[in-house]
């Protein structure tokens, strides 16, 4: 896979915080996402490639992602190493008011691999911005997940449907959508 072959490809892991496992989040799809993210993280670490961990810092004291709450902490498997960059965001898009774009440009990084949660929120928003900013962007479908949602008409949408719609929105227009095996292949 071209992105895995490029030494200067960064892995961006979005919002893999303890709060994502909170039952309040609801039913989700892709129960193997964490294992796939761990495989990608391990591959990037072994290859000594750049890794960016994105953490959502909610502006609402009622949120599990409010700073200082246990839900705001990274899941143990995704705790950044001292050498890995951490971006803190307050909105879904990891590029908004975080300095991420500048950090990437300063290092000459043009290729991004995006994983994390949730597919239809922070992953999609970040991938859209990345594509619009000219980065060659890959989203790893089986290293992301979504939650059940109601559509605008109040009709239930399964997490699988939400996930698939978000990835379909990204494919070809903003990003290339692959699975973990294809990327690491």
TrEMBL record:
Gene3D superfamilies, alphabetized: Isochorismatase-like (3.40.50.850)
Pfam families: Isochorismatase
Keyword Transmembrane helix: no
Entry keyword Transmembrane helix: no
Transmembrane segments: none
Keywords, in A-Z order: Hydrolase
Full protein name: Cysteine hydrolase
Originating species: Undibacterium umbellatum
């Amino acid at each position: 896979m071209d992105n895995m072959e490029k030494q200067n490809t960064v892995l961006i892991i979005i919002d893999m915080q303890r709060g994502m496992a909170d039952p309040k989040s609801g039913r989700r799809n892709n129960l193997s996402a964490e294992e796939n993210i761990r495989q990608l993280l391990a591959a990037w670490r072994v290859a000594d490639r750049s890794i960016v961990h994105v953490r959502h810092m909610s502006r609402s004291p009622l949120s599990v992602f409010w700073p200082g709450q246990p839900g705001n902490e990274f899941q143990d498997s995704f705790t950044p190493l001292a050498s890995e960059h951490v971006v803190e965001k307050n909105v879904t898009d990891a590029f908004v008011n975080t300095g991420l774009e500048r950090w990437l440009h300063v290092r000459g990084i043009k290729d991004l691999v995006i994983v994390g949660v949730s597919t239809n929120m922070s992953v999609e928003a970040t991938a859209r911005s990345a594509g619009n900013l000219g980065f060659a962007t890959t989203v790893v479908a089986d290293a992301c997940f979504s939650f059940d949602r109601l559509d605008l008409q109040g009709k239930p949408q399964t997490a699988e449907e939400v996930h698939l719609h978000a990835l379909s929105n990204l494919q070809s227009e903003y990003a290339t959508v692959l699975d973990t095996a294809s990327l690491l292949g």
